[in-house]
């Protein structure tokens, strides 16, 4: 009976994460469809995301009978996590605008391995041999992608994608090490801080006719909706399984960009991206199998 309940919970969690991934997959496409300049795009996307998260935080505060201050005021740890999340959001937008969407999504797919390596050097955690091996393979593939664009039009975007992955990995480590962190408040403060950084270079009123539609979809629907589903699902399944499902964003997101705006990934990105995805799938599968073996032993 316990095994059946565990299986149902895993299935439920997996579906929640997958729904979240499907919601966030158009993110890169919507960013590319916005016609205004990069900084203004980043300003509005971050501001709308921060405002939506603030409303969610206020609503939860009302449910818990908290004051407005208690509902919104971040702790010191949430500020730190927010800085990394803000860096993630800002670098992602600027990366998508300065390189092929597939390059950005493939590089970001390596975030779980980057998070694991940061945990080794910062939190002194021990990694299994499969993670070290996967890290070497993935980093060689990513270096090839970035190196292929070195000196070209994609170089800045590829480097920003790498910065996105590093900031995201740091965010996951801070949140993972501080269980008391409220992710909604952390993301909210990160979005607002990044918005302030964009203010000097932004032209908020200089939008094309359809830009507000794409921006509202991004900041008020896609990002917060995906966050709610992925967070709910990730609590029910092992991290390795959630990471495996999250890889679908690189595939679905690149496919949507190719389908809608006919942006075909380069040959190097296709080859190296396949290597990255295959390596991460194998790594996640082995992690899932080991986790299930341990659960069976505990149950026995």
UniProtKB/TrEMBL annotation:
Q: Which keywords does this chain's UniProt record carry?
A: Cell membrane, Membrane, Transmembrane, Transmembrane helix
SUPFAM superfamilies in alphabetical order? Multidrug resistance efflux transporter EmrE
Give all residue intervals belonging to the EamA domain: 13-146, 156-281
List the membrane topology term(s): Multi-pass membrane protein
Q: Which Pfam families match?
A: EamA
- Transmembrane spans: 12-30, 42-59, 79-96, 102-123, 132-153, 159-177, 189-207, 213-230, 242-261, 267-287
Q: Where in the cell is it found?
A: Cell membrane
Q: What is its main location?
A: membrane
Protein known as: Membrane protein
Q: Which GO terms describe its cellular component?
A: plasma membrane
């Amino acid at each position: 009976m316990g095994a059946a309940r565990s299986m149902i919970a895993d299935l439920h969690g997996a579906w929640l994460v997958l729904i979240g991934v499907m919601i966030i997959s158009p993110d890169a496409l919507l960013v590319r469809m916005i016609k205004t300049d990069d900084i203004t795009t980043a300003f509005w996307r971050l501001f709308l995301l921060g405002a939506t998260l603030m409303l969610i935080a206020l609503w939860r505060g009302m449910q818990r009978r908290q004051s407005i201050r208690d509902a919104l005021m971040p702790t010191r740890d949430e500020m730190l996590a927010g800085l990394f999340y803000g860096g993630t959001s800002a670098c992602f937008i600027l990366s998508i605008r300065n390189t092929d969407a597939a390059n950005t999504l493939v590089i970001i797919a390596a975030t779980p391995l980057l998070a694991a390596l940061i945990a080794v050097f910062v939190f002194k955690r021990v990694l299994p041999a499969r993670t070290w091996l996967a890290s070497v393979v993935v980093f060689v593939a990513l270096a090839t992608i970035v190196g292929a664009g070195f000196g070209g039009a994609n170089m800045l975007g590829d480097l920003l994608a790498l910065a996105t992955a590093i900031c995201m990995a740091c965010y996951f480590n801070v949140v993972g090490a501080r269980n008391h962190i409220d992710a909604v408040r952390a993301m909210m403060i990160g979005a607002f801080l990044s918005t302030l950084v964009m203010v000097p270079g932004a032209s908020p009123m200089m939008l094309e006719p359809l830009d507000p539609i794409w921006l509202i979809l991004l900041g008020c629907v896609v990002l917060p909706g995906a966050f709610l589903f992925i967070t709910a699902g990730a609590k029910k399944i092992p991290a390795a399984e959630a990471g495996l499902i999250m890889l679908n964003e690189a595939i679905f997101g690149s496919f949507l960009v190719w389908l809608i705006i006919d942006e075909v990934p380069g040959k190097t990105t296709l080859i190296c991206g396949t290597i990255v995805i295959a390596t991460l799938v194998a790594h996640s599968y082995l992690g899932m199998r080991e986790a299930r073996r341990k659960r069976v032993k505990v149950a026995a």
